[in-house]
């Protein structure tokens, strides 16, 4: 494809995306396909001869579009938002067009240094401790997802606990502490790291806040130490996936420190709220943390994938993950003056993802990002007020950010199982209507609807439309 | 940014990329910055107010471009190629604009099913065993990098060796076998998986071919079994990073099978050569493999990141990596009729990367991809002929694909260390000229220049220009 053809097809694709965003609010939010339906619409083999771009793009309409859930829809309220934005898309286009590899500083210095600088920007914007910036002992790195950050934190903790671990593997008995509401990523991480899920201590949560009970944590650590088990890591969640509960980091921090455990803070969803001073409290106690992550690809208008992982002691990371075969040796690496991000992550290769974070931080500015967070929270609080004022519904968890968890109120004499089935049916009908996309969780074992706000396109009217539909369907 | 503004900026960025590709051949291939220089050109903090896109793009020219190595340059011959192509860039733009999440089938069925189908296409195109396709017991998945594929293979092997591993972690003594020329990813993987690098058995290679010595492998396995060590995995490399050596899979396969070891084939670079029937031999013996990966983002015109990982028994993967918290439960998952790729990989979230593989397979067609591979190989063989015919140089390893490894011939009476220093100086001067970008390796301990061809833009003239410069500088 010549540059001139690329120009023509590129314009057309830019138009297609702009048109998609313009009309997206009028589309049903969910997909319209049964298992196997997309695959059945495709040929069994790759074509022998090349096809025209027009033919390929026609199949986007025919095959792909009916089979996607519109995550950028203003009434996509499922999971957590994964909102991109126009400047982020432009940056991803630039990243693809430049096609550089950032595995080493030497393979494209700007890819590394722009990442270091934008993560320093973000650290200061979020009020992270100075030690998490590159001018101090630590620094930040962009990963694909918070699950990878959790795994890297476990691995760094193992290295710190036993420097011989690199050579002889996991030896001895370790425990990892996380609240019962923590993300399943910790289970996956301990499995991959060779500890096994038995190492996970599921710490009790406060029944009202669903946040970790620091007393239970202290008790479990003490019991493990008595039994000769080493407290390897405490995982604190700032904004759990289920209900956005915030573990009490100021109380947990000293307990982890006293036990010598690595303290990792998973603020994947809620950490970015701290761009607003009124949410600075989400980072109280972060002076105790060894590592921290938050995902600008959730609620800060950067397209997936952009998990930002920060560490207090970068030598713990590079010690755990560093490799230097001959074919990667170079003068810059050996000078010690540069960062080689390959040693901060699981894969070797890396895309120029800093561009999208940089574009978004600059296009919106700090004030634009604060406005986005505040708008989201205002919409969620307005919705929560409506729910609280409606006898047909109950709110089941605190809702300090953009997520509201609720369910239909029990009918007189209704059993829990019947009420849960009615709640599940409500969600199914709401999603089937195409008006919105919600997901669910369980809170104290009870079926709970989650309505998560945060997409760039969402307005108060969208939330009102969803609420009206829910009240009509209940 | 309104859709109309996005349209305007999007056109400008498409133009910028088209212009870049048009003029790239005239740019010096390498970067022009010292450590810290890019960072020093950036402000210390994110801007308070949003900035104009024109301001941001001006900084691309001012700050970013001088700091990148032009990986898409026709005379970028370093590492392995990581060549993107216009259709791949268009697909990445579409991926960014749609902004969907493919962690579950239910979160965008087309993202999952298009991936399954295009990987089946690729499997057939490369002549992989039927068992590696979705209609059989296995299937493929797109990962970021071959390092991640290696780690996932180790984890799946652990699960197969000991189903209790998920719960109690690594127990017992395991060994992993890889040739002395295998990628460092295996060392990183065994470290992360909790086995420790002591578990890696570095198997001797044939001094001429640099391929694994199957007899040495058999001997090491026997010795380990005698010592009560379990042979966990044999890693076979098809196209080593250093010199593109091909381990003798037909000889190794039965040895691994007899030992009950997981057989993983890392064909990251060379596997895609099998789009050409004359390179079908690279997959001889693949009937013994449990898992396999190759990277279309290296030599098949798909932009990074696109590692394709195939497995014979998909239950081994989902058994090792599967998690199902309440907030991810859904009817499609529970029906068992769909693939949820989150259980085939380390992270949870995933981008719609199948689009770029699909676009590339369709735009070029099988014949276009064969032509690309053949052109690459023809250029490399032509270069090798010139080197072989020139007394000032020696070729130091077989060169069946697009990489040629060579060094200056020793001068009469010249010590190895002096000859190595002269070779390193030649590389430094060649790269400093801006005409080309080469990297190095060591072969039998001797400094060796690597010239890897495979970029979409490279022509025989580019190789001739590089060769002339090298002969002038030697």
Structural write-up:
Chain A has helices at residues 3-23, 37-40, 53-64, 86-98, 109-125, 146-161, 165-168, 185-192, 214-226, 249-259, 296-299, 314-321, 331-335, 354-388, 416-432, 460-473; strands at 139-143, 174-179, 200-203, 230-237, 262-266, 291-294, 307-311, 393-395, 403-408, 439-443, 446-452. By secondary structure, the first copy, chain A, is α/β, with parallel strands linked by helices. In chain A, the strands form two sheets. The first copy, chain A, has a seven-stranded mixed sheet, sandwiched between helices. In chain A, a hairpin with a 2-residue loop joins β10 and β11. The longest helix of chain A has 35 residues, at 354-388. Chain A is globular. The interface between A and B is large, with 156 and 156 residues.
Give the key terms:
homodimer, 474 residues, alpha/beta, Aspartate Aminotransferase, domain 2, seven-stranded mixed β-sheet, four-stranded antiparallel β-sheet, 11 strands
Number of helices of chain A: 16
Proportion of beta-strand residues of chain A: 5-15%
Give the overall shape of chain A.
Answer: globular
Report on the biggest sheet of chain A. 7 strands, mixed
Q: Which strand order spans the largest sheet of chain A, edge to edge or round the barrel?
A: 1-7-6-5-4-2-3
**SS-based structural class of chain A?**
alpha/beta
Biggest interface found: A-B, 156 and 156 residues
Second CATH tier, the architecture of the domain at 101-351 in chain A: 3-Layer(aba) Sandwich
Question: Strands, helices and their partners?
Answer:
2 copies of one chain form a homodimer.
Chain A: H1 3-23, H2 37-40, H3 53-64, H4 86-98, H5 109-125, E1 139-143, H6 146-161, H7 165-168, E2 174-179, H8 185-192, E3 200-203, H9 214-226, E4 230-237, H10 249-259, E5 262-266, E6 291-294, H11 296-299, E7 307-311, H12 314-321, H13 331-335, H14 354-388, E8 393-395, E9 403-408, H15 416-432, E10 439-443, E11 446-452, H16 460-473
Parallel strand pairs in A: 2-3, 2-4, 4-5, 5-6
Antiparallel strand pairs in A: 1-7, 6-7, 8-9, 9-11, 10-11
């Amino acid at each position: 494809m010549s540059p001139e053809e690329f120009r023509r097809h590129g314009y057309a694709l830019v138009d297609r995306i702009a048109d998609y965003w313009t009309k997206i609010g009028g589309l049903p939010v969910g997909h319209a396909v049964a298992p196997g339906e997309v695959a059945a619409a495709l040929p069994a083999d790759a074509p022998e001869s090349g096809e025209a771009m027009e033919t390929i793009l026609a199949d986007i309409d025919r095959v792909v579009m009916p089979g996607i859930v519109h995550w950028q829809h203003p009434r996509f309220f499922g999971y957590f938002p994964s909102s991109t934005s126009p400047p982020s898309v432009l940056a991803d286009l630039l990243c693809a067009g430049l096609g550089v590899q950032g595995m080493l500083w030497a393979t494209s210095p700007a890819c590394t240094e722009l990442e270091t600088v934008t993560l320093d920007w973000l650290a200061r914007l979020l009020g992270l401790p100075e030690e998490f910036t590159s001018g101090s002992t630590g620094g930040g790195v962009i990963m694909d997802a918070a699950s990878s950050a959790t795994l890297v934190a476990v691995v760094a903790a193992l290295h710190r606990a036993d420097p011989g671990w690199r050579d002889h593997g996991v030896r001895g008995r370790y425990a990892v502490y996380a609240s019962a509401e923590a993300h399943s990523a910790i289970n996956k991480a301990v499995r991959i790291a060779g500890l096994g899920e038995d190492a996970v201590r599921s710490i009790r949560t406060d029944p009202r806040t669903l946040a970790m009970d620091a007393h239970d944590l202290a008790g479990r650590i003490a019991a493990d130490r008595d039994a000769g088990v080493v407290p390897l890591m405490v995982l604190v969640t700032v904004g759990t996936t289920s209900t956005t509960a915030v573990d009490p980091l100021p109380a947990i921090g000293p307990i982890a420190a006293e036990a010598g455990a690595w303290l990792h803070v998973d603020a994947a969803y809620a950490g970015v709220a701290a761009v607003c001073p009124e949410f600075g409290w989400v980072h109280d106690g972060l002076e105790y943390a060894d590592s921290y992550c938050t995902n600008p690809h959730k609620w800060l208008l950067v397209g997936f994938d952009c998990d930002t992982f920060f560490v207090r002691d970068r030598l713990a990371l590079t010690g755990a993950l560093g490799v230097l075969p001959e074919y990667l040796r170079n003068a810059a690496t050996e000078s010690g003056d540069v960062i080689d991000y390959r040693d901060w992550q699981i894969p070797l290769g890396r895309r120029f993802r800093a561009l999208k974070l940089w574009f978004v931080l600059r296009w919106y500015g700090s004030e634009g990002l604060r406005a986005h967070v505040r708008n989201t929270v205002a919409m969620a609080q307005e919705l929560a007020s409506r729910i609280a004022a409606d006898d047909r519904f109950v709110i089941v968890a605190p809702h300090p950010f953009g997520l509201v968890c609720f369910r239909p109120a029990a009918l007189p004499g209704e059993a829990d199982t019947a009420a849960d089935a009615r709640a599940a049916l409500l969600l199914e009908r709401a999603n089937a209507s195409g008006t919105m996309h919600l997901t669910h969780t369980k809170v104290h074992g009870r079926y709970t609807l989650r309505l998560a706000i945060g997409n760039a396109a969402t307005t108060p009217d969208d939330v009102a439309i969803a609420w009206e539909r829910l009240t009509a369907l209940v």
